[in-house]
Amino acid sequence: MRLELTKRGDYAVRAMIALARDDAGGLISARTIAEAMAIPPRFLPQVMADLVRAGLVEGVTGRSGGYRLSVAAADTSLLRIVEAVEGSSRRETCVLRGGPCARDGACAVHAAFCGAEEAMIGALESVSLAEVSDGAPAWQRAGGAARTAEGGATSADEGGAGPRGPAPPVCST
To answer: What is the CATH number of the domain that holds 12?
Structure first.
């Protein structure tokens, strides 16, 4: 089982973090966002257009144009950002059958997977953009060790933050 963002979702979260970290609230160019957050410049306009359509970002065209948050970072959940570019987080197909579960009754694992889905959605809904863009996340301030999925040290271990910011802890199995 995998839980990861698409590249589009990843870029959207990083772009929103860049906008939230701008204390002045002014316009930030796409180039500046792309460079600051290590986002390929050719993909950023598509992602930003999704965020503008969702009402999360204001885009201003022209030579001195750019982007800024249109909703306060404290009022924007990670779930809202991800769903703005990836669509609904709720499964529409059965994990066993590939079609809707309700067609001929719920499958044997329906309740377990629905519970897991609701927990994930609740977790993403409960974390604001302000929380994740305001320096290191709480788990890291508490002294948690950051590791990559392969078990190696991240730049956060060496006191720095990589292009995606501090790495989250890897869940133990």
So the answer is: 1.10.10.10
